[in-house]
């Protein structure tokens, strides 16, 4: 099909439409190489179309030249870009240039960006001017990168929102107020809102999922692009960024929209918002798809309005950096930390601890961070998991003995005071019956490895099976916490008593 379409273009037949169809065909069918072979020796046909009287033909020709990535096209695209007098076409030349090594034009791109910044933006030309600005910025940043600002605001006061497990917001709040007694907190549906005097506590609290910032005066807006952008541009956001970072504007951001809109609607909505933020902030706030420094998170609430929060990527979450490697079944580290926090009162210092299904070691590492253990053993049948667990424990600066073995064949010279583990669950080839069988064998095996009074801390997807099995074993349930109704996960704490 691409051959026939290219022949029609050469013959001057419906050039605009056929150029567009060719682009779609090579995108859908991966026929770029075939088209390149057809165009070879006839490059002047496309170059000539950059001079077409029809603006959309020029646009489609430029974009197709970008798709083909033939180096001689670059100079022709730049020349056509400089000569183009139709606003809506100019950014297409820049889009095409993304596919080439355009470094020789970097200074000229910067000069054009500076020129465009000084141009008067009217309601009529706003859309196309902002699109050209974005393309110019992207091309420059793609070569030079973003000069990332360094976060320095550890001792500043902030309004923060800690996203937590919805069932255990109070736990995170209590951890915060213990470390930061002056914090003023409020429980909300998804977590804890707090006014804090500094951020020196953030690495000590392991149970929050995400840290967001709230800028007063920018908390909410009508769910409309212009109003959102105006709310952000008129807020103290730039002052917030300046007080918490070394260096001056511009600052580089991305947008994230939490809404019931479909993907197409979201894309259009966010393009409008980002363009207006750049314009209203005089490009002190610049939208970029890579090397961004912060995220503006837009959340459509139940009233149809937009809540606005900030996530700083300049403020690294260092709590779980020990976890260098994972496997597909690995527990999320924040869930392992939550498990340890919920079970803390049942743990004892210097306990002998066992994880029968240790995976990459996250449970044992988080258990030791909650309450100092003595000797810890992790068992896993998967060699890959054990190797990764050893690396993670070393990164966490913990001594844990990891054994590559089937737990049901594991023996040991002394007994353990505690078991903490993320229990196997239905996944891949593992069926419900397989999992039940593992649970039955697990409770049969454990008594030979446990001291009287030992504690079991289980992160499980099968809490009903655990409850049934305790009636037929020497275990009793002390606590049963629902972690996620959607995922069916619980933290269950049991006590073993010898008969």
Average residue pLDDT:
92
Report on the biggest sheet.
7 strands, mixed
- How many helices? The count is 18
Radius of gyration: 30 Å
Strand-residue proportion? 15-25%
What is shown here, in short?
With 499 residues, the protein is of the alpha/beta class. Helices cover 42% and strands 21% of the residues.
Give the arrangement of secondary structure elements:
Layout: H1 2-10, H2 15-29, H3 32-39, H4 43-49, H5 55-68, H6 73-83, H7 87-97, H8 106-117, H9 126-144, E1 150-151, E2 158-163, H10 169-179, E3 184-188, E4 191-196, E5 210-214, E6 220-222, H11 225-234, H12 237-244, E7 245-246, E8 251-258, H13 263-280, E9 285-287, E10 294-300, E11 305-312, H14 333-343, E12 353-355, H15 362-370, E13 376-380, H16 383-395, E14 401-404, E15 416-422, H17 432-445, E16 450-460, H18 463-470, E17 475-484, E18 489-496
Helix pairs in contact: 1-2, 2-5, 5-7, 6-7, 7-9, 8-9, 9-13, 11-13, 14-15, 17-18
Q: Which tags fit this structure?
A:
18 strands, alpha/beta, five-stranded mixed sheet, elongated, 499 residues
What does this structure look like?
With 499 residues, the chain is of the alpha/beta class. It contains 18 helices and 18 strands. A seven-stranded mixed beta sheet has the order 14-13-12-15-16-18-17, sandwiched between helices. Helix 17 links the parallel strand 15 and strand 16. Helix 5 (55-68) packs parallel to helix 7 (87-97), helix 7 packs parallel to helix 9 (126-144) and helix 11 runs parallel beside helix 13. The N and C termini lie far apart (79 Å).
């Amino acid at each position: 099909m691409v051959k026939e379409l290219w022949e029609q273009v050469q013959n001057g037949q419906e050039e605009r439409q056929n150029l567009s169809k060719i682009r779609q065909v090579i995108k859908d069918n991966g026929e770029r190489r075939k088209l390149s072979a057809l165009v070879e020796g006839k490059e002047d046909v496309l170059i000539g179309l950059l001079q077409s009287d029809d603006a959309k033909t020029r646009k489609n020709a430029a974009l197709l030249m970008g798709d083909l990535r033939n180096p001689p096209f670059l100079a022709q695209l730049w020349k056509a870009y400089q000569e183009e007098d139709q606003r809506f076409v100019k950014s297409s030349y820049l889009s095409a240039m993304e596919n080439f090594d355009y470094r020789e034009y970097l200074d000229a791109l910067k000069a054009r960006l500076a020129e465009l910044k000084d141009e008067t933006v009217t309601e009529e030309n706003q859309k196309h001017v902002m699109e050209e600005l974005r393309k110019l910025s992207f091309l420059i940043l793609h070569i030079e990168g973003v000069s990332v600002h360094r976060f320095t605001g550890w001792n500043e006061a902030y309004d923060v929102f800690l996203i937590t497990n919805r069932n255990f917001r109070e736990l995170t709040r209590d951890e915060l107020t213990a470390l930061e007694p002056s914090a003023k907190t409020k429980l909300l549906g998804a977590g804890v809102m707090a006014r804090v005097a500094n951020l020196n506590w953030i690495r000590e609290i392991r149970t929050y999922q995400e840290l967001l910032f709230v800028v007063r005066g920018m908390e909410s807006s009508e769910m409309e692009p212009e109003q959102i952008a105006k709310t952000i541009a008129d807020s103290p956001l730039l002052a917030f960024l300046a007080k918490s970072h070394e260096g001056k504007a511009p600052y580089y951001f991305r947008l994230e929209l939490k809404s019931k809109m479909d993907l197409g609607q979201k894309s259009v909505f966010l393009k409008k918002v980002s363009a207006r933020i750049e314009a209203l902030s005089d490009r002190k706030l610049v939208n970029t798809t890579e090397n961004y420094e912060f995220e503006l998170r837009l959340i459509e609430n139940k009233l149809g309005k937009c809540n606005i929060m900030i996530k700083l990527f300049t403020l690294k979450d260092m709590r779980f950096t020990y976890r260098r490697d994972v496997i597909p079944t690995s527990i999320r580290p924040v869930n392992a930390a939550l498990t340890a926090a919920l079970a803390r009162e049942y743990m004892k210092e210097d306990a002998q601890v066992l994880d029968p299904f240790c995976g990459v070691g996250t449970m044992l590492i988080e258990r030791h961070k909650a309450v100092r253990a003595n000797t810890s053993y992790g068992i896993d049948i998967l060699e890959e998991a054990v190797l990764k667990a050893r690396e993670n424990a070393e990164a966490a600066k913990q001594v844990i003995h990891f054994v590559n073995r089937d737990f049901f064949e594991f023996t040991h010279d002394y007994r353990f005071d505690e078991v903490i583990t993320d229990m196997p669950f239905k996944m891949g080839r593992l069926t419900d019956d397989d999992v039940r069988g593992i649970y039955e064998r697990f409770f049969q095996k454990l008594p030979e490895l446990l001291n009287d009074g030992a504690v079991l801390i289980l992160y499980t997807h099968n809490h009903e099976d655990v409850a049934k099995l305790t009636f037929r074993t020497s275990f009793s349930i002390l606590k049963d916490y629902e972690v996620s109704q959607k995922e069916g996960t619980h933290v269950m704490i049991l006590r073993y008593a010898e008969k």
